[in-house]
Amino acid sequence: MTAALHSLRADRRSLLEQPVARRVPVVARAATVYLLVPWSVAVDSEATEAAEIMGRYCRGEAAAFQRLYALLAPRLLAYLFGLLRDKAAAEDILQVTFLKVHEARSTYVLGANPIPWMYTIAHRTFLDEIRKRKRNRVQLTKDGTLLAEPAADLTGVPVEAGQDEAARPDPAAAAGALAALHQLPENQREALLLTKVHGRSTAEAAMIAGTTQGAIKQRAHRAYVTLRGLLGKPEVADAARPQPEKEPS
Amino acid sequence: MTTKDFDDRALPPGRIDAPAPSPDLLKAIQEMKPVRTRTRFGALAAVALVGLIWPALVLTLHAYRPDLGALPLGWVVAAAALWGAAFVLSLTAALVPRRGDVLPAPGRASRIGGAALAGLFAFALAASVQVPGVSLRPEDAHMTLLRSCVHCASFVLEIAVPFLVVGLYALRRLVPMGRARIGLALGAAGGAMGGFVLHFICPFAGTAHVVLGHVGGTILAAVAGAALLPALLRRRS
Question: Engineered SS bond to A124: which of A164, B176, B195, B236, CB 3.0-4.6 Å?
Answer without folding.
Answer: B176
